[in-house]
Amino acid sequence: MGKKDRKWRDSPADTLRVGQGFSIETFDCASTPGFTGDEDDAEKLMSKRSKTLSELQERLFAEGRSDGNRSVLLVLQGMDTAGKGGIVRHVVGMVDPQGVEHHSFGVPTEEELSHHYLWRIENALPTAGRIGVFDRSHYEDVLVVRVHDYVAPEEWGERYDEINAWEAKVAASGTRIVKCALMVSKPEQLNRLAERLERPDKYWKYNPNDLDERAYWESYMAAYQEAFDRCSTEAAPWHAIPADNKWFARLAVTELLTQALEGLDLGWPAASFDVDTEKARIDALRASA
Q1: Residue 265 region by backbone torsions, left for phi larger than 0, else alpha for psi between -120 and 50, else beta
Q2: What are the structural domains of the chain?
Q3: Cα–Cα distance between 233 and 139 in angstroms, integer?
């Protein structure tokens, strides 16, 4: 991205990263930190970045097909209506789907409950050369589980350190982890729920339970705060993304994902055969046709 095209005053990887002193209470979900443009600028920039993102994903995929072991994991967390599905469609949708492995984590099945809570997460990690997408993730076990008292506090209280250790192991094995928390304000969430009832094509997205969950909003915010405080690490930092403006959230995740791939310094795999020999074979076949 050339300087004349940049609308980012600062890198989103730095601006949106959750660091010491981060507070959800003072976080502005309608802000556009580090970005100096408007929605039109964002659309143009996403269009340009999509070409870069697509090529980087192809390079990663080619590396995986050539005995490489690296991958990227995009973790999406957020309250209902925060825009996780939109990120999958509008950001991840810009790359070749054969190079993407998408998993949505809902209520654990009986089989999953019979195992350690990280078992189903471990089984869903992206294979070499792929971009994995977690629509919700292992953080449900220190968010929903905590808010609704599904396990005792001493049990979920031990999970932060366990998650950190697990993520460090995953990162060390060759998976670049990009954790994005889409932060939507409580009034904006209500507006989005109401909009779903005004559009028949959105009825399928409406769940009456979403209104019930709003009663636990403050508890969820406390749970998110502790997850940020304790699990934004060097190996897998959290990025808090203002999501009241969908266009900004999509732009921000696009940039974070692109930068993560750029950081891998991906090249094209060398040929595993003699190129000149294969060219000669093709020339011979053409001559005999």
Answers
A1: left
A2: 3-288 (3.40.50.300)
A3: 14
Q: Is 60 helix (H, G, I), strand (E, B) or coil?
A: helix
Total residues found in the chain within this entry: 289
Instruction: Compute the half-sphere exposure of residue 28: CA atoms within 13 Å on the CB side of its CA.
Output: 5
Nearest to 249 by CA among 18, 46, 96, 110: 46
CA distance 134 to 132: 7
Mean pLDDT for the chain overall: 95
Please give the pLDDT value at position 39: 96
Compute the average pLDDT of residues 197-218. Answer: 93
Q: Are 127 and 101 in contact (CB under 8 A)?
A: yes
pTM comes to 0.94
User: Does 85 score more than 80 pLDDT?
Assistant: yes
Tell me, rounded to whole angstroms, the distance of Cα 163 from its chain centroid.
17
As a whole number of angstroms, the distance between CA 216 and CA 248 comes to: 26
DSSP code, position 8: B
Contact residues for 207 (Cβ-Cβ < 8 A; gap 6+): 80
pLDDT digits (tens, 9 = 90+) for 32-59: 999 999 999 999 999 999 999 999 999 9
Give the C-alpha separation, 80 to 195, whole Å.
Answer: 13
Q: How far apart are CA 136 and CA 19, in angstroms?
A: 21
DSSP 215: T
